[in-house]
Amino acid sequence: MAATLTYQYSVRDKTGKIVSGKLDADSQAAVAAKLKQMGYAPISISKTKVGMKTEINIPGFGKKVKLKDLAVMSRQFATMINSGLSMLRALTILSEQTENKELARVLTEVSKDVETGVALSSSLSKFPAVFPPLMVNMCRAGEVGGFLDSVLLQIAENYEAEVKLRGKVKAAMTYPVVVFVMAILAVVGMLLFIVPTFAAMFDGLGGELPAPTKILVLLSQLLKVGAPFILVALIAAAFVWRKVKRTDRVRNVVDPLKLKIPVFGLLFQKIALARFARNLGTMMHSGVPILQSLEIVSDTTGNVVLARAIRDVQDSVRNGETLAGPLANHPVFPPMVVQMLSVGEDTGALDTMLHKIAEFYDQDVEATTESLTALIEPLMIAVLGGIIGSMIIALYMPIFKVFDLIE
Q1: Distance (Å) of CA 248 to CA 55, 253, 274, 306
Q2: How far apart are CA 306 and CA 299, in angstroms?
Q3: How far is CA 240 from the centre of its chain?
Q4: 176 by DSSP, 3-state: which?
Q5: Is the four-CA dihedral 108, 112, 115, 118 of positive or negative sign?
């Protein structure tokens, strides 16, 4: 961890506002030159020593760039570009004002690349963990066509819609998950602390315990012995699952099963269809070539079943055939989607039709999640009450016979 040198600067922008910050450079003169290129008037530049200063990043627990951060950044970036600010200055402002440290670090690197003459899309492609291929290719199309600001607005709208959709699903699933966790904690607490107390009392009474009580006491004894092993196994399983859940072998098994789950399978299908239509429509509207758009969209649907169908469509288009034709062979695409895409191809308004499909499924997912929430709430309460109630009855069954045991 060798000491590094940076420069602390204070400048005045075109509006007269004083701005302060830090910049890495070879010399004080280089800092002044960079600041002047960015449209600032340097006031003071001083060398700052940053020794033995490092960030500790634990693998898997580092600061991540969320979709919401990209949506906010894209909208602010588009607004500044549309207002006449240079790209370099806009990137500098974004890196200074974003709250996400990882995004600020990456934007600083992108700003340095752009300053040396590298295209924005080329610089973004160096950070695939932060900027998805959809964003990179749309920016490339905007650079070629000269409408980068409008492309950035489309990216922002796309990500905002995706964030809104995820938020609705998470909000609908929060209550059942909380109730389920509470039920697990209540059962474990009773088995570890309450049942042993009753078991000691039952031993003092003598006599034969009812079968439900025997099962409960046996579960309590097993849990007391195996609790540490179960906890370690759960942590290990969670860690392994996090590593393998995105591998092709696991997804080829899990993704088809997700679509077959009663009630929830239909919800997963609608979410994937909404994401497919929104991403493909946005990319085509931005001028990204159709084959390249399909290649990227197949990796962003979140489900292998849809990805396979989209690759069939890609092969069809590559051979000069229609876009909607192969989709009819895949049950995951409803007839309505196939027909709307066919009409969009015939009328030359495919991107508009895709956006209408995405809007329809966004509303459908919202309605489905609301109805699921209304259905799940009473069911979860009944399940929680049934589990706790049955355990209490099993504990008190021997007490009902206490007088018989005394006689």
Answers
A1: 34, 9, 23, 14
A2: 9
A3: 19
A4: helix
A5: negative
In this prediction the pTM is: 0.67
Contact 337, 343 (CB under 8 A): no
Half-sphere exposure for 352 (CA within 13 Å, toward CB) = 7
Q: Are 42 and 11 in contact (CB under 8 A)?
A: yes
- Residue pLDDT, tens place only, 327-352: 888 888 888 888 898 888 888 888 88
Q: Find the helix or strand (DSSP H, E) in which 403 lies.
A: helix 402-406
Q: Report the distance separating Cα 103 and Cα 100, nearest Å.
A: 5
- The conformation of residue 327, written as its DSSP 8-state character, comes to G
Q: Where are the alpha helices (DSSP H) in 65-147?
A: 67-82, 87-97, 101-115, 120-124, 133-145
What burial letters (b/e) apply to 384-393, b meaning 16+ CB within 10 Å?
Answer: beeeeeebee
Q: What value does the mean pLDDT take over residues 295-309?
A: 82
Rounded to an integer, what distance in angstroms lies between the CA atom of residue 366 and that of residue 55? 41
pLDDT digits (tens, 9 = 90+) for 179-237: 888 888 888 888 888 888 777 777 666 667 778 888 888 888 888 888 888 889 989 99
**Residue 228: how many other CB atoms lie within 10 Å:** 9
Q: How far apart are alpha carbons 238 and 302 in whole angstroms?
A: 20
Those residues whose C-beta lies under 8 Å from the C-beta of residue 118, and which sit 6 or more positions away, are none
pLDDT value at 2 more than 50: no
pLDDT at 403 over 80: no
3-state secondary structure of 288: coil
CA distances from 162 to 71, 99, 174, 273 (A): 9, 20, 18, 12
Q: What is the pLDDT of residue 236?
A: 92
Q: Decide if pLDDT at 364 tops 80.
A: yes
Identify the residue whose tokens are 């590298």: 118
Q: For residue 392, which of 241, 213, 192 has the smallest C-alpha distance?
A: 213
| Tokens 């830090």 -> residue | 22
Helices (H), 116-194: 120-124, 133-145, 148-189
C-alpha to C-alpha distance for 346 and 69, rounded to whole angstroms: 38
User: Residue 19: beta bridge partners?
Assistant: 11
User: Rounded CA gap, 238 and 314, in Å?
Assistant: 36
Query: In the Cβ-directed half-sphere of 75, how many Cα atoms lie within 13 Å?
Result: 11
Tokens of 53: 């200063």
